[in-house]
Amino acid sequence: xxxxxxxxxxxxxxxxxxxxxxxxxxxxxxxxxxxxxxxxxxxxxxxxxxxxxxxxxxxxxxxxxxxxxxxxxxxxxxxxxxxxxxxxxxxxxxxxxxxxxxxxxxxxxxxxxxxxxxxxxxxxxxxxxxxxxxxxxxxxxxxxxxxxxxxxxxxxxxxxxxxxxxxxxxxx
Length: 172
Prior knowledge:
The protein is an all-alpha fold. The protein folds into two domains: 1-34, Orthogonal Bundle (Arc Repressor Mutant, subunit A); 41-171, Orthogonal Bundle (Tetracycline Repressor, domain 2). Helices cover 74% and strands 0% of the residues. It has ten helices and no strands. Helix 5 packs parallel to helix 8, helix 6 (61-75) runs antiparallel to helix 10 and helix 7 (78-93) packs across helix 9 (127-148).
């Protein structure tokens, strides 16, 4: 990430990334199929789902996700969150990455549909579970795009506001 911020995403090569990591380019490609993949990798998604599944069964699925936002604030060290924030800003400001992140959002729908299925006893391919997951991904995407426009914004606060709005039925 340091190289991307110093040189810009487009100007940074895989060879430079590999050299900075003290690995060969072939080793780089064993872990990441593309340069984009280094930025699009999100280590927090599995942690978020695991934490959401651990929430009280009395909570609605969106309520469990909102409670998980508190978990993230408490459990993820500030420096790790700052790194994640820089990654998000890069993703949503670089046109190349912004278009590539759409595939990640599709994966997010699958992940969240599985979460909803576990919480509600439905199947992950259930129409309503997938529709709910798509709505969650949509409000998260809108929150991240908005947060990228304001470097001082706290994405966790904005995502929680988005979840609250979704939970209320998206009133205008």
